[in-house]
Design brief:
Keywords: Membrane, Transmembrane, Transmembrane helix. This is DNA helicase PriA. With 364 residues, the protein is α+β, with helices and mostly antiparallel strands. It has a domain of 237 residues. Helix 2 packs antiparallel against helix 3. The structure holds zinc ion (2 copies).
C-alpha cells in the first residue's frame, strides 16, 4: 500500500499570544513561549506506541506508512545528519561545533520515531551540571573553563536508537561441568604439605530454550568521535512517550546514520549472547561449555526511538572535545584537555619550594 509522506515533524508551533516559537518545556507535557510565558498542553497520544513488524521494513523504505520526509542538515566535518526544530539562525553542528550551511538543507526520508523520551532537564540545569563539573577539573585550560560558561555551547539533542523485540527459540548442545576436589601431597622434606585441588567432571548436555527478548537497545548514530559515553548512555525506557513532534520543539534531532538493516544485525548478535546465557542457565552445574546453538527469532518487531542528551562541543588547539549530560538522569561524562602551562608552573613551584627547603636544611 502506497501512502503519501506527511510532514508532521515540521509543523512550527507558534505562540498564540505573541507569535514566537513555542518550545518543549523539559520535564513537563507542555510547550512554552520563552517571551510571554504562554503554556500549551501537548495533546495526548491517540494510541500507545506501536512496535513495527521488522520484515516489512528491512527490504524497502519510503513507501511505508510510518516513514516521512524531514529537513536535514548534513555536517560536512563529522557527517552527522541533524534536524533543527527552530528558526535557522546561526547553526552549528551539535557534535563538532562546525557551522552548518542552511542552503545545504535537503529533504530526506526517515522512519518516523515510534517513541521519544522527552527531556527531563532543561538546558539551564544541564549547563549548571557542566559548569560544576568543569570547575572541579584540575589542570584544565582557562579557555575551556570560559567556554563552559557560555550556555550556547550546550545543546539538547535527541539521539536516534533502534530497539528490537523478538521471540527467541534455540536448540543447544554442550557440556555441564561439576567441580570436585582432590587432596594431594606436594613438596618434600620440611616443605611437605597437602593441598586441595579443584577438578571438573564433564557431562554431555543438550536442550532447548525459549523466551521473549524485550527492547534490545542499539545505537543508530554512526558518529565515530563524539560517541555518547557508556556512563551517560542509560535511560529509563519506561518513560518513553508515543512520538509527538511537539517534544522536539526547540531541540536538535539527529537522523539515524546506521540503517535499520545494520541495527538489526547488531540486535541479532545481542540475541545470540542472550541465547548463550539462557543455555548456560539451562545446563546448570558449576561451569558450562556451549558447543552449538541453533537459534530462531520470530515475531520480530522494532521501533525507532529518540533519547535525550545534552552535548557541549568545544574546540581547543584544533582538537575537538565533547561533554555529555544525560537529558533524563543528569549523568555527566566528557573528555578533557590538560593545560601544559598550568602543570608546568605547578611543577616549577613545587621544585622551587623543595629547593628552598633543601637550602635551609643544608645551612644548619
Ligand atoms: Zn508568546
Ligand atoms: Zn559536525
Amino acid at each position: 500500500m502506497q501512502s503519501t509522506p506527511q510532514q508532521t515533524s515540521e509543523l512550527k508551533k507558534a505562540c498564540i499570544n505573541c507569535g514566537a516559537e513555542l518550545r518543549y518545556a523539559p520535564g513537563t507535557t507542555e510547550l512554552q513561549c520563552e517571551y510571554c510565558n504562554y503554556k500549551q498542553e501537548i495533546p495526548p497520544a491517540l494510541d500507545d506506541f506501536q512496535e513495527l513488524e521488522l520484515s516489512n521494513y528491512l527490504n524497502q523504505l519510503g513507501a511505508q506508512s510510518h516513514s516521512e520526509q524531514i529537513t536535514m542538515l548534513h555536517c560536512k566535518n563529522c557527517g552527522a545528519n541533524q534536524h533543527v526544530e527552530e528558526n535557522y539562525k546561526s547553526l552549528h553542528c551539535v557534535y563538532c561545533s562546525m557551522p552548518l550551511v542552511v542552503e545545504d538543507a535537503y529533504k530526506d526520508d526517515w522512519i518516523l520515531p515510534g517513541a521519544v523520551l522527552p527531556f527531563q532537564l532543561d538546558q539551564q540545569k544541564a549547563h549548571q551540571i557542566f559548569k560544576k563539573w568543569v570547575d572541579g577539573l584540575w589542570w584544565a585550560p582557562n579557555k575551556l573553563k570560559k567556554a563552559s560558561l557560555d550556555p550556547q555551547y550546550t545543546k539538547g539533542l535527541y539521539a536516534p536508537f533502534w530497539t528490537f523485540d523478538a521471540q527467541l527459540y534455540a536448540n543447544y548442545t554442550g557440556k555441564r561441568g561439576e567441580y570436585y576436589y582432590v587432596t594431594k601431597t606436594v613438596g618434600s622434606g620440611k616443605n611437605r604439605r597437602t593441598v586441595r585441588e579443584r577438578r571438573t567432571r564433564w557431562y554431555p548436555a543438550s536442550g532447548s530454550i525459549s523466551g521473549f527478548i524485550d527492547d534490545t537497545l542499539i545505537k543508530a548514530s554512526k558518529q565515530k568521535k563524539g560517541v555518547i559515553p557508556k556512563k551517560v548512555a542509560h535511560w529509563d525506557l519506561r518513560k518513553l512517550e508515543t512520538f509527538r513532534s511537539e517534544f522536539l520543539a526547540g531541540f536538535v534531532t539527529e537522523k539515524y546514520t546506521i540503517p535499520l538493516k545494520d541495527g538489526h544485525l547488531e540486535a541479532k548478535k545481542e540475541a545470540r549472547n542472550i541465547a548463550d546465557r539462557w543455555a548456560r542457565r539451562d545446563i546448570g552445574g558449576d561451569t558450562q561449555i556451549v558447543s552449538s546453538i541453533d537459534m530462531k527469532l520470530s515475531k520480530e518487531t522494532f521501533k525507532h526511538i529518540l533519547l535525550p542528551v545534552y552535548i557541549s562541543a568545544y574546540r581547543f588547539k584544533g582538537k575537538r572535545y565533547n561533554f555529555f549530560v544525560n537529558g533524563e538522569s543528569g549523568k555527566i561524562s566528557g573528555e578533557r584537555p590538560y593545560s601544559f602551562w598550568k602543570i608546568f608552573f605547578a611543577v616549577m613551584g613545587v621544585l622551587a619550594v623543595l629547593g628552598v627547603i633543601i637550602y635551609f636544611m643544608n645551612r644548619n
